[in-house]
Amino acid sequence: MADGANAILVRRRRRELAAGPRTTRWTRGNRPLAVLAAVFTLAQLALVRPVLGLGWDEIVYVSQVTSHHPAAFFSAPRSRGVSLLVAPVASWSPSVPLLRVYLALLSGLALYLALRAWRGLFPARVLLGGGALFASLWMTLFYGPQAMPNYWVAIGALISVGCFLRMTAERSSPRTLWGLAAGGALMAWMRPTDAVYVAVPLLVLALVRRHWRLLLVLAAGLAAGAVPWVIEAYLSHGGLGARLAAASRIQGGLGWQIAVDDQLRSLGGRALCRPCTGSMPTPLVTFWWFTLPVLAGLALVVAARARRLERTLVPLACATTAALPYLFMIGYAAPRFLQPAYALLAIPVADALWHLVRGPGRSWRPVAAPLVALVLAGHLAAQLAVLDGAVSRNTESRRDWGRTADALHRLGVRPPCLLTGHEAIPIGYYTGCSSGATSGNNENITMAGVLRTAERLPVAHLAPAGGTPPRYARSWPAHRISDLDVRVAPGP
Q1: Which positions, given as ranges, span the membrane (predicted)?
Q2: Res 409: pLDDT
């Protein structure tokens, strides 16, 4: 018995000794990623600030699930993913700061989980550097705490590509398969068309190499995320083809259109560049954009020499297909459109930067590290400056909507009510009114419908100062609010 008990103790001790180093390595590898996610969360709350009011697109998404405001018109390109994401808070609280804090915390946690999906594919320092590069972009910080889909497509892309590569390289656990499906579902849940562009290289690679299980799991994840969008297409838009056609029309018609220069102009802090006119940002702001393809090429060279080409080539291919439609198929730009591409580029680029710091010979190494650090410091300073300008402009524009809403209340336009015309969706939300449009991309009511509503509710039409009102509002009393001409229908 003594020998048997002693043998049990010896085996237990061996298991503890064997588990100890692995536990330590796991902790060391994940703790820096957790710290990065925490810093990213705090940076959002400090730099973007929770008091920032809701923007136009946010209003559309949030109003679908809140009981405190009428739902805004939901056009064909949009998906319900963001609305469901914010529902745990927006469905019961009108507090914008609470929503911002919730989204900041959620985005930080999502970044941590997305980077963890790449464990074992690259050293921890590369994952930390790639995560920091992506998290420090002004559009990542700006949109992290906002109710917008593109950041979440980027997170889904990171998870999908990381889990896919781990399965092809290691035949990893069933948990990795679930991660692959979840990443595909998250992308499609947020923006089905973006999900397809990101996933094309993965689907092709799985098909060519006959990885049938990976192909099935990824396709199932994409389908699961896209099902609500497809069902809604048949219920509300006349079918899938009709919805895709309407989405293309609303976006100006998808086709061969070079938007590279538009994307460059938007890097200066413009949330939407449509039409995209004006001067280019300074070279200090756009420098990083031109270095991305150079560093991506260097990352391929480094990976080829290290005989791990696939784990670098695949994310670069997915980043390319994710960026193509927004660079060459639409006639306008927004910096958030390329967030999935930036997220996928970040890890290979970080690998290339670490090679520049540590790879060259001893004579170059003392110079390389300070030079790379100096360039990254300048890049970070430029990103923070652009972020500050973007936050200031958006804060003021959203406060202006609030001031217009206050003026409308003084004119007797109070909920329940209806606003039509210029910026009716955002101003209607701040006023507590429904919004209507008799033409254009957000058409959801007829002129006769507006007049019938005016017989029982307060109705007002908004137009830029000096603009021509529609026929149904020409006889309504006019008022000037800031730079708007407001015509209020006679009381019911």
Answers
A1: 33-52, 98-115, 127-145, 151-169, 212-231, 287-306, 313-334
A2: 97
